[in-house]
Amino acid sequence: xxxxxxxxxSLPPLWRRVRTLAVLLVGLALSLGGFxxxxxxxxxxxxxxxxxxxxxxxxxxxxxxxxxxxxxxxxQGFFESSDEVSREDFRTFLAPVLARHPYIQALQWLPLxxxxxxxALEAEARRAHPDFRFFFRExxxxxxxxxxxxxxxxxxxxxxxxxxxxxxxxxxxxxxTRQEALQRALRTxxxxxxxxxxxxxxxxxxxxxxxxxxxxxGPNRGLVQGVFRMGDLVQKALALLEPKGVEVTLIDxxxxxxxxxxxxxxxxxxxxxxxxxxxxxLARTFDLAGRTWxxxxxxxxxxxxxxTPTRAWAVLAGGLAFSLLLSVYVSTLLASEAKVRAQVxxxxxxxxxxxxxxRQDARALRESETRFRHLIEVMGDGLWVVDAKGITTFVNRRxxxxxxxxxxxxxxxxxxxxxxxxxxxxxxxxxxxxPEGQSAQHDFRFRRRDGSELWTIVTGTPVMDExxxxxxxxxxxxxxxxxxxxxxxxxxxxxxxxxGVLAGGIAHDFNNLLTAILGNISLAQLCIPKLSxxxxxLQNMERTVHRATNLTRQMLAYSGKGxxxxxxxxxxxxxxxxxxxxxxxxSKKVALRFHLQEGLPVMVAEASQIQxxxxxxxxxxxxxxxxxxxxxxxxxxSSVYDAEALARDFPGQPIEPGLFLTLEVSxxxxxxxxxxxxxxxxxxxxTKFTGRGLGLSAMQGIVRGHRGGIRLYxxxxxxxxxxxxxxxxxxxxxxxxxPRDAEDWTGSGTILVVDDEEGVRGVAADILRSAGFDVVxxxxxxxxxxxxxxxxxxIRAVLMDLTMPHLDGAESFRELRHxxxxxxxxxxxxxxxxxxxxDFLGKGLAAFVQKPFVRGDLLRAMRKALES
Length: 868
Hints:
The protein is an alpha+beta fold. Among the domains are: about 65-235, CHASE domain (Beta-Lactamase, 2-Layer Sandwich); about 330-370, no CATH class; about 380-475, Beta-Lactamase (2-Layer Sandwich); about 565-725, 2-Layer Sandwich (Heat Shock Protein 90); about 750-865, Response regulator (Rossmann fold). The protein has 23 helices and 29 strands. The strands form seven sheets. Strands 1, 4, 5, 6, 7 and 8 form a six-stranded antiparallel β-sheet that branches. The chain has a five-stranded antiparallel β-sheet with strand order 14-13-17-16-15.
C-alpha cells in the first residue's frame, strides 16, 4: 500500500459511503420487519384468546338455557305421572328445583278451566287463598273477573308463592305476549317459549320469558309454565367461569329486532377511545322450545385491543437506534482503517492485522460459550452431567427446579441419592445392562426435595477420552410426571367403567331371578292362611329377597353409575335408626360414640344408600381397631365450602360450592400408610384376609352418585378419619306413605305379558290370572307385535320388560303405539322409575312397576293403567 501523506485527510471514497448506507438500510429493513412481526403476533394472540373465552361463555349460556327449560318438562312429567297433585305436593316437588335454579321467577300449574269444573277449582283455591278468583287485565291494567261460560287456562298453583301471589287466578289466554307460545304448545305438545315479557313483580331492569308445555293425560289436564328471569339465568350460567373481559348478549332471534334483546352485559369501565375492536365477535345460534336464540359475545371495553403493542414500537425504536449506531460505527471504522493504513508501514499493519485476528477469534470463542450456556439454561428439559463414578458435576437450572434444589446443592452428590432405595437399585441394574460407549434411554423415578415423585425419561450419552475410557455421562432429563398421572387416571376410569358394565349385567340377571322368587312367594301367600305355620317362613323369604334387591342396587353404585330414588332426608335420624344395628355389628371391645349436631338442614338422598355408607365405614373402623379396645366416633354437622376450600380439601371431585352436611367416622385403630391410602378406593383392593375389596369402592360410588365428596385423614399408628360432605337441600324430611292396597282388586279382559325371562313371564301371568285376567305371553318384542295383531283389539293392556332381544322395550312401545295409539303399556325394569322411563316421557306410558315386584305392586300398576 502506498504511504499516505500527512495533513488533512480527503473525503471518503464513494464505496465507503455506499457500505455505510447499505448497513443503515439493512438495519432499517430488519427493524420494520421485527415491528410488523411483533404487532401481527400480538393481534393473533388477542384474537385466539377472545375466541376461546367467547366460545366458553356462549356454550355455557346455551347449556344453562336448556337446563332451565328442562325443569318445565320435568314438572310436566310429575303431573302426568301423578293421580292427584295437592298444593303441598307441588311445593315439595319444586323446592329443590327452585333452590338449584334461583333465576326461575315462578313455576305454575294452569289447569284447563271449563264451565263444568270452574266452581270446584275456585272452591279448592279459596281454601288456601280466600280472595282467589279467575281474572284478566284490561288494556289499562285493571283486573276483571273472567265471565262465566268460558274455557281457558288460569294459574292455580305457583311456586314460590312469595312475590307471586298476584298471579293466582290469572288467565293465560288474555295476554298477546303468550298467545302464540300457548297455541304452539297446545298444538305440538312440546315445550314452547314466549317472546320477551315484562315481569310485573320484577324490580330490576331485566326481561323475562315464559316457557310452557301441556299436560294432557290422567286427571291433570292443563299447562305447566315457567317464568324465567333471563338476566339472572345468564349470570348463573357464567357464575363459575373466570372473568375473561368479554360481554354476553342474549337475543331472541325469532322476535322482531326491536323486541329481541333479552339480556346484555355492560362494562363499568370508562370509554377509552378504542375500547372495542371491530371484527372481534362470536355468535352462537340454536333452536330451543320452538324459538331461535342467539348468544352474542363481544369484547368488553378496554379488553382484547388490536392496536399496536408497546413492545412492537420498542422493537422498531431499538432497531432504528442500533442501525444508526452501527452505520456510524462502520463509517468511523472505515475512516480509521484508512488513516491507519496511511500512517504506519507494512510491518506495523501486519502486526495489527494479526492482533485483530486473535482478538476476533477470542471474542468468537467467548460468544460461542455464552450462546451454548444460554441454550443449556433455557432448554425445556433438564441437563445432568455426572463423572465416571456417578457424581454430579453440573445441572442446569431446569434440572434443579424439577427436583426442588439449587444447582449448588446437587453438585458433588451421587445421581442415585435423589431416588428411593429400591428405585436406585433398579436404576443401577438398568445402567449396568447398557452397551458400553452407547447412548441409552431409561425411565427413572426421582424423589423431589418435598418428598413427591418425579417421573422422567433420561437419555444418557457417554463422553469418552482418546483412549476410549469413560470420562462423564451427559443426561437429558424429560419430565413425564403429568403424563404418568393422566395414564393412571385413564386406567382407573377404564377399571370403573368395566366394573360398571359387569355390575349392570349381574344386577339385571339377579333382578329377573328375584322377580320370579318374590312373585311366587306372594302367590303362595294367597294360598295359605296367615295363621299357617308356613306363613312366617314365607315372610322371612320375602325379607331376604328385599335385602338381595338392595345388593343389586349397590352393584350399580360400585362404579358411580347407580341411580338413586332420592327424597329429603334427616341425616341424624338416618344414623340414629341404625344405632342398634351398628352396635351389634362391631367388636364388643369397641365403644361407639355419637356426636350429632342438632338443627341440621335436610339432604336430598336415598336413606338406604346413606345408611349403607355409614355401615361400611363403621365396620371398617371396627376391623381397623381389631381385638384391642378402642373408640369409633360418628359426627354430623354442617359447613359452607367455597370453590377454593373444595379444591383444597376435596381435589379432583366435581362439587359446586355451597352449604354442605358433613358426616365423619373416625377410629383409634392402626391407621394407613400412604401406599394403602393411594389404593384404598380401588375395586377389589383389600388389606383384610376375609375382605372382598368392594366396601369402600361401593361407598365412593354412592357418595359420587349423590354429588358429594370424600376426604381421608390417616396416619400409621394414629387412626383414621373419613369425612364425607353432601349438598344441603330444602324442605322437610320425606314421610313414608303406605301405597293404596291392591291385593283384593280384580279385573277382566286380556293382558299381553312380554318378557324374555321365562320365570318372570310365568309369575307375572300367574299373578294377573289370580286377579281375574286372561293372559297372553310373548318372549320378545317381535313376538309381542304378532300377539298384539292377533288380538285384534281384545288386548286391554300390555306388561312389557324394558330390556329384551330383537326389539327392546322402547322400540316395541313405539311399534305398539303405531298399531294402536290408545294401547296402554305398563313398563317393568330392574332400574328405578326415574332412569327407566327417561325415553318415555310425554309419550303416553300408562304405568311403571320396578323389578322385583310382589303381587300387590303389579296389580297396583295395572289398576293405574286401566283406570287412568
